[in-house]
Design brief:
Largest sheet: 5 strands, mixed, barrel
Strand order of the largest sheet: 1-2-3-5-4
Helix content: 40-55%
Main location: cytoplasm
Keywords: Cytoplasm, DNA damage, DNA recombination, DNA repair, DNA-binding, Hydrolase
Distance between the termini: 32 Å
Family: Belongs to the RuvA family.
InterPro entries: DNA_helicase_Holl-junc_RuvA_I, Hlx-hairpin-Hlx_DNA-bd_motif, NA-bd_OB-fold, RuvA, RuvA_2-like, RuvA_C, RuvA_C_sf
Structural class: alpha+beta
Strand content: 15-25%
Number of strands: 5
Subcellular location: Cytoplasm
Shape: globular
Oligomer: single chain
Length: about 200
């Protein structure tokens, strides 16, 4: 339904943000990791999103990277893991840390998340171990890419060249981290292409 939002950050709380897109404020639930990376109120942001529709509610979840969104989808596929628990896990562990924990069967690491007991942590590790092997998740969760700048154009450029959106955004985020926010579009695209090719 709604795959991503680009707009101005209207408000941010402990577990949510409101993104103003063309005069409409979208309330998105997000991990503390994403909320700390999206920048100041009034700034431009782009978040990947996942919408959950329940009998009595519709909730929009926001993510600073495609990798974080991919993990959210995997986590909520485990029995007993709802959206809020998945966000708690993604607040406690980065995508890289979560991948390592699942691959090595480290249920204690998953249990560090608020609201995740030992039994649930064990179920998450057990059920996701097989699934993660077959899914090409993007590398760790990079900082949210500021919308409207060279980074957004660079993601678009890589996508037009045939890269998957997740690969493109991860490569651009890594290039943006290395070059800094003032990088030109040309420099970003060149470095992102090198990173994506590795």
């Amino acid at each position: 339904m709604i795959a991503r939002l680009s707009g101005a950050l209207a408000e941010a709380g402990a577990d949510h943000a409101v993104i103003d897109v063309g005069g409409v404020g979208y309330l998105v639930q997000a991990s503390s990791r994403t909320l700390s990376a999206i920048g100041p109120i009034g700034g431009s942001v782009m978040l990947f999103t996942e919408m959950q529709v329940r009998e009595d509610s519709m909730t929009l979840f926001g993510f600073g990277s495609a990798a974080e969104r991919d993990w959210f989808r995997l986590l909520t596929g485990v029995q007993g893991v709802g959206g809020r628990v998945a966000l708690a896990i993604l607040s406690a562990l980065s995508a890289d840390e979560l991948q390592r924990a699942v691959a090595s069967g480290d249920k204690a690491m998953v249990a560090r998340a608020q609201g995740v007991g030992p039994k649930l942590a064990e179920r998450i590790v057990r059920e996701l171990k097989d699934k993660v092997g077959g899914i090409a998740l993007g590398p760790g969760a990079p900082a949210a890419i500021p919308a409207g700048g060279a980074a957004t154009d660079a993601v678009s450029a890589l996508t037009n060249l045939g890269f998957r959106p997740a690969e493109a955004s991860a490569a651009v985020a890594a290039a943006n981290d290395e070059l800094g926010d003032g990088a030109s579009l040309d420099a970003l695209v060149r470095l992102a292409l090198k990173k994506a090719a590795r």
